Amino acid sequence: MTATIFEIKRFAVHDGDGIRTTVFFKGCPLRCVWCHNPEGLTTAPQTARYAHKCIGCGECKKEGFTPDDCLGEATVLYGKEVTVEELLPILLEDRDFYETSGGGVTLSGGECLMQADFCAELLKELKKEGIRTAVDTCGFISKSALDKVIPYTDVFLYDLKAYDEDIHIKCTGVSNKQILDNIEYLDSLGKAIEIRIPYVPNHNDSQIDKIACFLAPFKNIKKIRVLPYHNYAGSKYEALSLQNTLPDRLPADEEIQRVAEKIKVITNFVVLS
Amino acid sequence: MAMCDANIYRYVVYQNFDYLDSLSPIKRSSEIFKLETEALSMDLKKEDEFFGWMFFDNPNKYCDKLFSDCIVDEKTQSIIQEPVIHGSITTVDRAHTLVDYQYILQNGLSSYREKIESEMLKYPGDEYLLAMRDELVAIEKLVLRMQLAVEENSNGCENASKIKTALKQVPFYPARNFLEAIQSVWIIHFLLPVAEHAYYSISLGKFDQYIYPFYQKSLADGMTREEAKRILHNFYKLLNSYSDGACLLNVGPEYNELSELIIECQREFSMPAPILGARISESTPDHIWNMLIDEKLFSRGQPTFYGEDSCAAALVEKGVARDRALGFSNNSCMGIGLAGKEFNSMWGCVFSISAVLEAALNCGKLLHTNLVVPGIEKITNLCELYGAFERSADHLFDICMKSYEARADLSEKTDPDPFVSILTDGCIEKRCDRISGAEYHNVTVECMGMINVSDGICAIDDLVFKNNKYCLEELSEAVKNDFVGYEEIRNDILKCNKYGQNSDADLYAIAVAEILQRVIRKKDHANRKYSPSLHTLTANVNYGKNWGAGYDGRLAYEPFAKNAGPSDRVRKKEPTSLILSAAKLPQHKFFGGQPVDLNFSTEIIRNHKKEIASLISTYFQLGGLQLQVNSMTSELLKDAVNHPEKYNDLVVRIGGYSCYFNWLSEQVKREFIMRTEIEEKNA
Predict the structure, then answer these.
(1) Distance of CA B52 to the CA centre of its chain
(2) B150 located within any domain
(3) Which of B187, B190, B434, B672 is in Cβ range 3.0-4.6 Å of B424 for a Cys bridge?
(4) For residue A25, which of A106, A86, A92 has the smallest C-alpha distance?
(5) pLDDT of B656 higher than 50
(6) Pick from B273, B296, B327: which residue ends a domain?
(7) Is B122 exposed, middle or buried (0-12, 13-18, 19+ CB in 10 A)?
(8) Which residue of A has its CA nearest to B573?
(9) B610·A52 Cβ contact <8 A
(10) In this model, does residue B677 exceed pLDDT 90?
């Protein structure tokens, strides 16, 4: 069995507790206007060209060139097919750091659970090795896909972008019904959940109160993290020849703090920003 | 302006050349020391907590004549200079002095005087003992002048009476409280460079441990924490107006209230000196980690972290008994030493490893000089390569060793240092200079370019031996021509694995390191300890500027790899990979020191202290000796905008996302820098 991934990031400290290695799976059912990983949207591999990074090594003019040959990393291939056997040793390299920091491995994307069978297999192997696991998901997946990974996942990093369905559709292109249902499902099973709310002014800023009220009754939410929107992915859209949909307005630090405070008051959960 | 620097030595020699030239070198040394202490002017300022300001402000005058006994014959001169031909340099490095402050504070200089006098009874008229005694007399007179200045108190210092009492006691008699301890340390710390004529990197040793009993006593007697902080502030101000500021102050491994106060001072005073050397053990408490992992400290490259167990293990490997090894002090720069027992030639030898590889690969010939290493034959496989490398290293290091020995011999005979020798255990009894009298005379051998060389061997193994893509001669031709016309070869070399990515390339670095430590340590004799090291500071840039291209694809005149870090050609440097790679090196056998540098964004320093602490402590658990930190300051980011080519690996992280700085648009870069500036202001 293989999966398509577009990056493996080590010393990842923003994808769950401790020092982690994060695997980014390619392909996503959502089309968030603010997406900061546009290279993870399609399942098919894509080649990106960062013109300003070209050092003129000339490798790309040769026959049989692959992006791996590009010495300036100006040409980058997003999308590589891997097996569990290939991934496992890479993910275990930083085991010492996981142990001292309480970290582990996170599967992210794109939407990793679009390749749920592979994720389940990989997570199972990681659990056999005693590694703490996290799955970062947008939640727009079937219960059966979730069921596959639940037994091997210690914590779900669960993105929630809007409560009102029409706003959710406007921002992401899809309904949030399944997403809201799946949170309830995970909570009912007693799985540890960390909610992540991207805060994008003029897009989902009206949703904060409603999201907080929705989350308040749950029992297994360990924390809520507010992710301030940023536009750093601009050059990726260009490199991939994609239309840049990134919003202009960035949230101010104070705004984020206010939002975090508000969610905390409503939900009584630990809220980080 | 520095309070006092090497100009005082030049001035004294200039003023008294003929007289000094008529003296024997030993007598001359004590006479120069005396004249220097007399040439100092001093000042007690209104706000001073203890006596500290001593100046030399005479015009810069010096004579270019050598004392007649310093002139060396041609043969010796050529031995001394010989390493330069293959890019190596030797020096008798007189700084990096690490004296036993604990003993001095508990016993005072008078206890050394007693030892000297008792030896003098046995050996009346011994010249070295006389010189030692004369230097203590000069210090006594200097302290007397300080006392007079306090009595005069022309600036109306409010603490004059306390200071006067202190100066009657220290540095000659045991310190009785915190103020006296600091006063005593400062006087000695000030005089060490004067005596060595070397105004840099004087170490303060295990400061928070040996000062602590005095701190506790004074607190019990009514001193407040704030008063102690004022005294330390005074001390820090003095340290920063003297010498190069690279004096290392150890904190830990047992952290007490004084350690905490010092870390607090370090953060608040925001001065370059001293360098905080934080000693880390498995029991380092979380609140200390949280104090040490601080954006304000990191932005100044502080603290330097040391692994307690691995440093002690390195000393054991060096031959120090385990119980003594546990009492080590970290010395300025990267030394691991025993206070008061060593002479540290920290830059004793910079050994050009690139030259070793060139000779090994080219039948003994270097690519750009006429030097030929004898007995090196054509090689056809990796095993032969390592054999030739070892023989070549042996030959070239022998040249370095002979050069160093000639220099050390000359230094001891013509420019001894009785004051530092008094404070170096065993020299009084042996009636000789620290150069041969110290228990260990450490000659740090900086293996310049070692990582570039091991990456080069890795590429050769891949492209020549394993895949037969090129022959060795082609590669050497390419390197010799700085890859001009051989771009294809260079691209292939660059695609090979490199040290620092936790890959097979690390195996070549381990093999090279093992060979070098064997070659270097074989030269130990008497008190000499040739100590292998991968410590470049920023000298990797200058040494690189003077050397041609390398087999790792490094172009001519580009920097060598820094410290135990990867070469600039390594494309992605994740901290965990680098740490795993560095920990594979036989670090304990490189007891001369080998720091690894890590750079963190302010966001990570602020919000992920636990992860940074885990990263560092894992490194030490795996055997790492020393770790240097930095943060991405706005200054660094601005440089990255102007020189993107230098920062291909710079990762910035905000929110849940991270990316290469170079990927950002110009506008976003500006915004990011602005944000960083705001964070710095708020820190």
Answers:
(1) 25
(2) yes
(3) B434
(4) A106
(5) no
(6) B273
(7) exposed
(8) A10
(9) no
(10) no
Structure token pair of residue B664: 């950002």
Ranges A89-93, B346-350, B534-538, B548-552: which has the least confidence:
B534-538
In the predicted structure, residue B650 carries a pLDDT above the cut 80: no
Is B218 a domain residue?
yes
* pLDDT score of B64: 79
| Residue B166: pLDDT over 50 | yes
Task: Please indicate if any CB of chain A lies within 8 Å of the CB of B497.
Answer: no
Structurally, how many domains does chain B consist of?
2
Residues of B in contact with A236 (CB under 8 A): 659, 663
- CB atoms A100 and B621 under 8 Å: yes
> Do B142 and B190 touch, CB atoms closer than 8 A?
no
Is residue B530 included in any domain, yes or no? no
pTM of the model: 0.93
Dihedral angle of Cα B611, B615, B617, B623, to the nearest 10 degrees: 170
Q: Whole domain around residue B638: which residue ranges?
A: 632-683
Give the count of Cβ contacts less than 8 A between chain A and B: 103
Domain at A2-47+76-272, CATH from 3.40.50.2300, 3.20.20.70, 3.90.180.10, 2.30.110.10: 3.20.20.70
Neighbours of B123 (CB within 10 A): 12
Got the DSSP string for B320-343?
--HHHHTT-EEPSTT-EE-TTSEE
Residue whose tokens read 């749920």: A116
Look at B657 and A232 and tell me if their CB atoms are within 8 Å.
Answer: yes
Q: What mean pLDDT is predicted for residues B340-357? A: 97
Q: Which residue of A has its CA nearest to B679?
A: A253
Question: Do A234 and B668 lie within an 8 Å CB cutoff?
Answer: yes
CB contact under 8 A, B576 and A233: no
> Is some CB atom of chain A closer than 8 A to the CB atom of B642?
no
Q: Is the pLDDT of residue B655 over 70?
A: no
